[in-house]
Write a structure and sequence with these properties.
Radius of gyration: 13 Å
Mean pLDDT: 85
Structural class: mainly alpha
Distance between the termini: 16 Å
Number of strands: 0
Low-confidence stretches: none
Number of helices: 5
Strand content: under 5%
Length: about 80
């Protein structure tokens, strides 16, 4: 079970990026950034929703579901 406070979204994004085997040049072009920025996002525990949405589209994965599912379990544990 994931907990809201323990989600490292950058690690999830990096894992999916590695699974999809998308060239870094394509990622940089799509995200409108340089490679250093991509690696910084992978290391980041938080990311803005607009960037996360772009990652969802590029990697064809619903990262927002991770947050929603985690939040559901977290809320249940607080009762």
């Amino acid at each position: 079970m994931l907990e809201l406070k323990n989600i490292h979204i950058g690690a999830f994004i990096q894992k999916r990026y590695e699974e999809r085997n998308i060239p870094m040049m394509r990622v940089c072009a799509f995200m409108n950034c340089v490679e250093e920025d991509v690696w910084a996002m992978f290391r980041s525990q938080v990311i803005s929703t607009d960037k996360l949405l772009r990652w969802c589209k590029l990697l064809e994965y619903g990262f927002f579901r991770l947050i929603c599912t985690s939040n559901k379990y977290w809320l249940q544990s607080q009762r």
